[in-house]
Amino acid sequence: MKPDFKKMPRKELIAYVLAHRDDNEAFEVLIDRRSPDSEATWYHFPYTEEGQQQMEEVFRRRLEGEI
């Protein structure tokens, strides 16, 4: 009998999914718990060389913890 994935705490569910990588049901419950895209930070840069440079700068700053 499988555990009740919907009642399982997030950390426990992650550990279960990592230990049972073929269990699609558990994986789907974990994915359903993710933060919605509305909470994500979206960056809109023009498709130009300057836009590419701006995007790289934002990613660099984000990775270094500046923003």
Q: Helical percent range? A: 40-55%
Catalogue the unreliable spans.
Answer: none
Distance between the termini: 46 Å
Largest beta-sheet details = none
Instruction: Give the helices and strands as they follow along the chain.
Output: HHH
Mean pLDDT over the residues: 89
Helix/strand class: mainly alpha
Shape: elongated
Q: How large is the radius of gyration?
A: 18 Å
Bin the strand percentage: under 5%
Structure in words:
By secondary structure, the chain is mostly helical. The protein has a domain at 1-35. The protein is 51% helix and 0% strand. The chain is built from 3 helices and no strands. The chain has helices at 10-19, 24-32, 49-63. The chain is elongated and about 55 Å long.
